[in-house]
Amino acid sequence: MATYKVVDREDPLLRKISKPVPEITPNVLKLIRNMLETMYEYNGVGLAAPQVGVLKRIIVVDIGEGPIALINPEILERSGSQTGEEGCLSCPDMWGDVERAKYIKIKGITPEGKEVIIEAEDYLARAFQHECDHLDGILFIDKVHKLKVKRR
Ligand code: ZN
Fold first, then answer.
1. For 53-66, what is the mean pLDDT?
2. Any idea which residues carry the catalytic annotation?
3. Closest to 120 in 3D by CA, of 71, 66, 79
4. Over the chain, what is the mean pLDDT?
5. What does the buried/exposed string (b/e) look like for 83-104 if buried means 16 or more CB atoms within 10 Å of the residue's CB?
6. 8 has a pLDDT exceeding 70
Protein backbone atom coordinates (compact mmCIF):
# COMPACT_ATOMS: atom_id res chain seq x y z
CA MET A 1 0.00 0.00 0.00
CA ALA A 2 1.06 3.56 -0.52
CA THR A 3 -0.22 7.01 0.19
CA TYR A 4 -0.72 9.75 -2.36
CA LYS A 5 -0.03 13.42 -2.16
CA VAL A 6 -3.38 15.21 -1.88
CA VAL A 7 -3.99 17.80 -4.59
CA ASP A 8 -4.25 21.35 -3.27
CA ARG A 9 -7.37 23.47 -3.88
CA GLU A 10 -5.46 25.78 -6.25
CA ASP A 11 -4.87 22.92 -8.69
CA PRO A 12 -7.13 23.25 -11.79
CA LEU A 13 -7.53 19.47 -11.77
CA LEU A 14 -9.98 19.79 -8.88
CA ARG A 15 -12.29 21.84 -11.13
CA LYS A 16 -12.59 19.16 -13.82
CA ILE A 17 -15.41 16.66 -14.27
CA SER A 18 -14.27 13.12 -13.52
CA LYS A 19 -14.98 10.26 -15.93
CA PRO A 20 -17.04 7.15 -15.15
CA VAL A 21 -15.07 3.96 -14.56
CA PRO A 22 -15.99 1.49 -17.35
CA GLU A 23 -14.43 -1.58 -15.74
CA ILE A 24 -12.99 -2.62 -12.37
CA THR A 25 -9.39 -3.44 -13.22
CA PRO A 26 -6.54 -4.32 -10.83
CA ASN A 27 -5.39 -0.71 -11.24
CA VAL A 28 -8.78 0.60 -10.09
CA LEU A 29 -8.61 -1.67 -7.01
CA LYS A 30 -5.08 -0.52 -6.26
CA LEU A 31 -6.22 3.10 -6.59
CA ILE A 32 -9.04 2.48 -4.09
CA ARG A 33 -6.71 0.78 -1.58
CA ASN A 34 -4.26 3.65 -1.80
CA MET A 35 -7.04 6.26 -1.54
CA LEU A 36 -8.20 4.62 1.71
CA GLU A 37 -4.64 4.53 3.00
CA THR A 38 -4.22 8.22 2.12
CA MET A 39 -7.53 9.18 3.77
CA TYR A 40 -6.50 7.45 7.02
CA GLU A 41 -2.99 8.88 6.88
CA TYR A 42 -4.43 12.41 6.83
CA ASN A 43 -7.28 11.64 9.27
CA GLY A 44 -9.92 12.46 6.67
CA VAL A 45 -13.47 11.10 6.60
CA GLY A 46 -13.59 10.98 2.83
CA LEU A 47 -11.57 11.29 -0.33
CA ALA A 48 -12.40 11.51 -4.03
CA ALA A 49 -10.09 10.27 -6.80
CA PRO A 50 -9.50 13.74 -8.32
CA GLN A 51 -7.98 14.73 -4.97
CA VAL A 52 -5.15 12.31 -5.65
CA GLY A 53 -4.84 13.49 -9.25
CA VAL A 54 -7.01 10.85 -10.93
CA LEU A 55 -10.10 12.06 -12.81
CA LYS A 56 -12.19 8.95 -12.22
CA ARG A 57 -15.58 8.73 -10.49
CA ILE A 58 -14.46 6.96 -7.33
CA ILE A 59 -15.00 8.00 -3.71
CA VAL A 60 -14.06 6.56 -0.33
CA VAL A 61 -15.71 7.49 2.96
CA ASP A 62 -15.23 6.39 6.58
CA ILE A 63 -17.03 8.37 9.27
CA GLY A 64 -15.77 5.94 11.91
CA GLU A 65 -18.10 3.10 10.98
CA GLY A 66 -15.79 1.36 8.53
CA PRO A 67 -14.69 2.14 4.99
CA ILE A 68 -17.09 2.49 2.09
CA ALA A 69 -15.71 2.73 -1.44
CA LEU A 70 -18.04 3.52 -4.32
CA ILE A 71 -17.30 3.47 -8.02
CA ASN A 72 -19.48 5.67 -10.26
CA PRO A 73 -21.55 6.96 -7.32
CA GLU A 74 -24.79 8.71 -8.14
CA ILE A 75 -27.10 10.46 -5.70
CA LEU A 76 -30.62 9.32 -6.56
CA GLU A 77 -32.60 11.20 -3.91
CA ARG A 78 -32.03 14.06 -1.51
CA SER A 79 -34.34 15.40 1.15
CA GLY A 80 -34.36 17.65 4.17
CA SER A 81 -31.54 19.93 5.11
CA GLN A 82 -28.72 20.10 7.63
CA THR A 83 -26.01 22.65 8.23
CA GLY A 84 -22.69 21.60 9.71
CA GLU A 85 -19.00 22.24 9.65
CA GLU A 86 -16.90 20.80 6.86
CA GLY A 87 -13.28 20.72 5.93
CA CYS A 88 -11.42 19.10 3.06
CA LEU A 89 -8.02 17.44 2.69
CA SER A 90 -7.47 19.68 -0.35
CA CYS A 91 -8.10 22.80 1.76
CA PRO A 92 -6.30 21.86 4.99
CA ASP A 93 -6.35 25.39 6.41
CA MET A 94 -10.06 26.10 5.81
CA TRP A 95 -13.37 25.07 7.25
CA GLY A 96 -16.88 26.37 7.58
CA ASP A 97 -20.58 25.59 7.70
CA VAL A 98 -22.20 24.06 4.63
CA GLU A 99 -25.86 23.33 4.02
CA ARG A 100 -26.52 19.84 2.66
CA ALA A 101 -29.44 17.46 2.28
CA LYS A 102 -30.12 15.63 5.54
CA TYR A 103 -30.97 12.37 3.83
CA ILE A 104 -29.76 10.89 0.58
CA LYS A 105 -30.05 7.70 -1.37
CA ILE A 106 -26.86 6.94 -3.26
CA LYS A 107 -26.14 4.28 -5.85
CA GLY A 108 -22.72 2.95 -6.72
CA ILE A 109 -20.60 -0.09 -7.45
CA THR A 110 -18.47 -1.67 -4.73
CA PRO A 111 -14.88 -2.76 -5.36
CA GLU A 112 -16.28 -6.32 -5.53
CA GLY A 113 -18.35 -5.26 -8.54
CA LYS A 114 -21.72 -5.31 -6.79
CA GLU A 115 -24.23 -2.52 -7.40
CA VAL A 116 -25.51 -1.13 -4.12
CA ILE A 117 -27.96 1.52 -3.00
CA ILE A 118 -27.14 3.11 0.35
CA GLU A 119 -29.49 5.29 2.39
CA ALA A 120 -27.54 7.78 4.45
CA GLU A 121 -28.48 10.45 6.95
CA ASP A 122 -26.75 13.25 8.81
CA TYR A 123 -22.95 13.04 8.84
CA LEU A 124 -22.67 10.10 6.43
CA ALA A 125 -25.01 11.86 3.99
CA ARG A 126 -22.85 14.98 4.31
CA ALA A 127 -19.66 13.02 3.59
CA PHE A 128 -21.16 11.41 0.47
CA GLN A 129 -22.43 14.75 -0.85
CA HIS A 130 -19.06 16.42 -0.26
CA GLU A 131 -17.15 13.64 -2.06
CA CYS A 132 -19.62 13.42 -4.98
CA ASP A 133 -19.23 17.18 -5.48
CA HIS A 134 -15.49 16.61 -6.05
CA LEU A 135 -16.34 14.41 -9.04
CA ASP A 136 -18.09 17.40 -10.62
CA GLY A 137 -15.35 19.90 -9.84
CA ILE A 138 -17.15 21.45 -6.87
CA LEU A 139 -15.41 22.24 -3.59
CA PHE A 140 -17.06 22.89 -0.22
CA ILE A 141 -15.59 26.39 -0.21
CA ASP A 142 -17.99 27.18 -3.10
CA LYS A 143 -20.96 26.48 -0.82
CA VAL A 144 -19.70 27.56 2.58
CA HIS A 145 -21.25 30.20 4.80
CA LYS A 146 -18.51 32.25 6.47
CA LEU A 147 -15.31 30.53 5.45
CA LYS A 148 -12.82 30.33 8.30
CA VAL A 149 -9.14 30.32 7.46
CA LYS A 150 -6.48 29.19 9.86
CA ARG A 151 -3.27 31.18 9.60
CA ARG A 152 -0.22 29.02 9.08
ZN1 ZN B 1 -13.04 17.46 -0.03
1. 97
2. 131
3. 79
4. 96
5. eeebbbbbbeebbbebebbbbb
6. yes
Q: Which residues pair with 100 in a beta bridge?
A: 82
- How far apart, in whole angstroms, are the C-alpha atoms of residue 46 and residue 64? 11
Contact, 18 vs 65, CB < 8 A?
Answer: no
Question: pLDDT-derived band of residue 121, with 50, 70 and 90 as boundaries?
Answer: very high
> Does position 9 have pLDDT exceeding 80, yes or no?
yes
- Cα of 9 vs centre of ligand 1, distance in Å, is 9
Closest CA to 130 of 116, 144, 110, 150: 144
Cα(88) to centroid of ligand 1, in Å? 4
Q: Ligand 1 centroid vs 22 CA: distance in angstroms? A: 24
What structural domains and CATH numbers belong to the chain? 12-149 (3.90.45.10)
Q: In one letter, which amino acid is 39?
A: M
